[in-house]
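User: Show me sequence and structure for the first protein, then do the same for the second.

Assistant: Starting with the first protein.
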Amino acid sequence: QQQQQQQQRRHYEELAHKSGFSTEQIKNLHKRFRQLSGNKETISRANLDSIPALANNPIKKQIIDAFFDKRNQRQDDEVGSLEEIGLEQFLMVMSHFRPPAHKSGEEERQAARRQKLRFLFNMHDTDGDGIITLVEYRKELLSKSGAIGHQAAKAIADAAMLEVASTNAPHMAPDDFYEGITFEHFQQILKGLEMESRMHIRFLDVDTTTMRCGKATS
């Protein structure tokens, strides 16, 4: 048993180095991982799909997909999707929600912000080509149009893309700009957005400030 504890401690230390979490945070997140997976070694989409707090979330599918998106594993932006994820992969996704350390310098804070924005960008860039197209934006908005109707949602999507064009590429015709929003444009659009309090994962019963896990049954 002592040998097993030593092995687990070494494993946690290795994961801490990769993810930026402390070993104590990883211990807590591992508990939540086991709750979600039913004490299995991997988590599937079905495990996350059954979380009650996600049931009425309008971007439930995008959130779940983000956990299985290879681009969010911080491995050279490899495009593709995983069927299941293990603890390390779970932690790498979770690390996008980790607040920067108090002692972080400006360069580190900017790098962390860029990673968070990239994570959000990936959620919208569904085909992984590095551009959020009008088709992708329309599809996302239409999927949750609800009472406003498809025509209204389509008009909103078109107007939003035109607004982005006028802000970020004033010398381009709207039809030219419809090829899509690049990550650079995306960063510009969200330039003034405060990220720390907005990127949270409360549906996992995880405190994103301390990364402690609450008691949960799902």
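Switching to the second protein now.
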Amino acid sequence: MTIRVLIVDDQVMVREGFSVLLNAMDGIEVVGEAVDGREAIEQVAALRPDVVLMDIRMPRMNGLEATREIVAADTDAKVLVLTTFDLDEYVYQALRAGASGFLLKDASARQLADGVRVVAAGEALLAPSVTKRLIVEFSKISEARKLADPAGAGELTERETEVLVLIAQGLSNAEIADRLVVAESTIKTHVSRILVKLGLRDRTQAAVYAYETRLVTPA
């Protein structure tokens, strides 16, 4: 199946550049572009993309607000945030709002295509070298809001808690299975149960939850 992508950015050169790169990749098609969050919401409804590449800082409606609305609308579209990392203090909030991960704007063509494929497949884009750092940094900022006794945490089994910690460390299902010496299908079952028990949307929110509730702490 071809992965349908919507690119949202207020800079025309960014939109055109990403369009050229992605349309050159097998199995990926850019079906539309939007210049701000409001237009992104309209385009998601009209075009039904699989993945939305979402910039954060845009006029009229920013990417954070648009991500919240797209996720709240319960569409099949997955939001992949585009960021410069050092400048976008709202990325952490976007992850909490339901974005499936993020990419740096200077990502290579291969990284961009791989990121789109990962998110389209229902996985979270959690590169240990970058995403973990971002989640840790912004979990410090929101520490005052974290729960002393996280709701739902007591419902997890010891193994599920172990899996949640490894998710927050950026490990894939295959890597977690290798670490715990079990079948990958077993890990998928654990992940599904964790998300249901904690009322979370995906692995990204699970990772944010683990940091906010101090199941994982900065090294």
